[in-house]
Amino acid sequence: MDKQYFHSVELDADLCCGCTNCLKRCPTEAIRIRNGKAHILSDRCIDCGECIRICPHHAKRARSNQLEEIEQYKIKIAMPAPALFGQFNNLNDIDIVLTGLRELGFDYIYEVSRAAELVSEATRKLIREKKLQTPIISSACPAVVRLIRIRFPELCDNVMPLLAPMEVAARMARREVIKLTGAADEDIGVFFITPCPAKVTEINSPHGSEKSAVSGAIAISQIYPALTSKMDKLKVVESLSKSGLIGVGWATSGGEAAAMLGDKYLAADGIENVIRVLEELEDEHIHGVDFIELNACSGGCVGGVLAVENPYVAQARIQILRKYLPVSLNHLKEDDIDRMMWETILTFNADTFRLSDDIFEAMDMMEKMEKIVNDLPGLDCGSCGSPTCRALAEDIVRGRAKETDCIHKLKAKIQSVYDQLGNL
Amino acid sequence: MSSIHLHYDVSGEDFTRAGEASGSVKKRLKALGYNTDAIRRTAIAMYEAEINMVIHADGGFVDVDIYPDHVDVLLSDHGPGIPDVEKAMQEGYSTAPDNVRSLGFGAGMGLPNIKKYTDDMRIETEIGKGTDLYLTVRVKEA
Predict the structure, then answer these.
(1) Could you tell me the domains of chain B?
(2) Could you tell me the CATH number of the domain that includes residue A393?
(3) Taking a contact as any Cβ pair under 8 Å apart, which residues of chain A between 350 and 369 contact chain B?
(4) A280 and chain B: CB distance < 8 Å anywhere?
């Protein structure tokens, strides 16, 4: 289970100048600067995209698919994330976006917001039937789920064991199209139009299932120019949208939680806030809440690093778009919930942060670490290539850095050599 | 047996800083790959005790010793002492001032909760002198 997973966040070494911007921003301390270039510690990276957002040199980017790649498939399905609908000025009809996608070469459109409505209904049902350990933490944000897997062992059981809307949508889209056309499954390409690099990772290393039904992901920022130009030239707008305000609301923070239709929920967004909530949950300081929605990005999915519009502007637009939509257009059928449940359980990756799997050795290493930390200047400047003095101490005891990587330590050492030479 | 010793001064001035010591201990226990149930119980019990220390005793210090199979915690303060320990152990009993209650603390869950989450709890208290609270959390093999 704990195989190395694929990451969507990658580095263009030519553009990286080895500055400390990403190093300091990374919420899981997964970046080190070595030999003047940033490196990602693969087991710690949760693909939240904060480093892509902060890098002034655009050296970090998210791997995603190009629009041309849809041509590999006979039948092409586009699955727009609801966040896409917040990216356009003066948009008053979701069908304009969906028809634009059709013009770009997609044969069918399946809005992820449709599946979101089913996931919301399934969650409500599971809460009502008291089948899950409360408070239930949403499993929709893959960066959050990965974060829990590496840092919050006691919360793994609270993560809702339902596939995220993207995955549910892909499965339903495939089923519908196969029923409609009789096409073979392998001839169908299902492409998610994504605001989020973590979703790209999710397609390659999914949570809750062995293999994703999604074929690829195209970044909103990549498809945006071509899509807007098609949207501007539409002669006929097809009637394609089949989602209500509940599904579209998932685009912004609080949308999924509001769809619980109760008031015992909490919604937090922005990775630092998410971590604070998880810490408090772990310490059992949060009471009286059944459902917890957590989004790694500020503002929710509209704040994804692959979106183009300011998340709060996008949020305002989503609000207006939702105003005249029916509440929900998608409802669970008999066996839908069974098909949406995770097939594999969420396991904690104990190895990510622990110093050693032998407690005695780990204690020994920590003892050394504490000594080293006390000896470091405590500036947390990042010049050594580790994000903090404590992280450097950890890297030293793990054997991946040395004390003189600290420029202040090095300076003192040079000074002492110089002084000794002077005394000769 | 060797242990990792940690020492924290808990300020009685700033309520918003309460929980820093327990947070730091939690982080270290995780880095040690400690038993997750023991981490949880230690963090919860220590947090409650730390809050108590700030609310009632104007701060103090915390000594933590981490052993491979258990964690010992001493929380020591120079506060007013606990006049009736037995009464303080009853759920719902609270002498927390209103400004603290308005923050959602002081529901009288402190000591009973600490006892619930630890394997050993000992209180040494003297009126006018202060209180020492000794806690032990043992690793229970799964």
Answers:
(1) 4-138 (3.30.565.10)
(2) 1.10.15.40
(3) 350, 353-357, 359-360, 362-363, 366-367
(4) no
DSSP-assigned letters across all residues of B33-80: T--HHHHHHHHHHHHHHHHHHHHHHSEEEEEEEE-SSEEEEEEEE-S-
What are the residues whose beta carbons fall under 8 Å from the beta carbon of A238, sequence distance 6 or more?
Answer: A95, A98, A99, A102
**pTM of this prediction?**
0.91
- Answer whether residue A110 is part of any domain: yes
The CA distance from A386 to A32, in Å, is 5
Confidence (pLDDT) at A2: 38
Verify that A296 and A267 share a domain, yes or no.
yes
Q: What pLDDT score does B13 carry?
A: 77
DSSP A193-217: EES-HHHHHHHHS-SSSSS-S--EE
A348 part of a folded domain: no
Take residue A41 and report the two structure tokens written for it.
């510690």
Q: What angle do CA B89, B93, B98 make, to 5 degrees?
A: 135
Same-domain status, A202 and A292: yes
- The tens digit of pLDDT for each residue in B91-133 reads 666 667 766 666 555 555 578 889 999 999 999 999 999 999 9
Query: Which structural domain, as residue segments, surrounds residue A382?
Result: 355-424
Nearest Cα residue to A162 out of A269, A277, A291: A291
Q: Is residue A89 part of a domain?
A: yes
Please state the ipTM of this predicted complex. Answer: 0.84
Average pLDDT score over chain B: 87
Strand partners, A162: A341
CB A284 within 8 A of CB A364: no
Q: Are residues A212 and A328 in the same domain?
A: yes
State how far the Cα of A70 lies from the Cα of B8, in Å rounded to an integer.
59
In terms of CA atoms, which chain A residue is nearest residue B45? A283
The reply to whether residue B4 touches residue A355, judged by beta carbons under 8 angstroms, is: no
* pLDDT of A7: 84
Does B76 contact chain A (CB < 8 Å)?
no
Chain A residue whose CA is closest to B44: A283
B51 compared with A16, residue with greater pLDDT: A16
The minimal CB distance from A359 to the residues B37, B43, B68 is found for B68
In whole angstroms, what is the distance from residue B66 CA to residue B68 CA?
Answer: 7
Distance from CA of B99 to the nearest CA of A (A): 19
Q: Is position A81 within any domain?
A: yes
Q: Are residues A187 and A232 in the same domain?
A: yes
Say what the pLDDT of residue B108 is: 52
Query: A167 with A299, same domain?
Result: yes
Q: Inspect the interface and report whether the beta carbons of A154 and B2 lie closer than 8 Å.
A: no
Strands A9-11, A291-295: pairing is unpaired
State whether residue B70 sits within 8 Å of chain A by CB.
Answer: no
pLDDT given for residue A354 in this prediction? 94
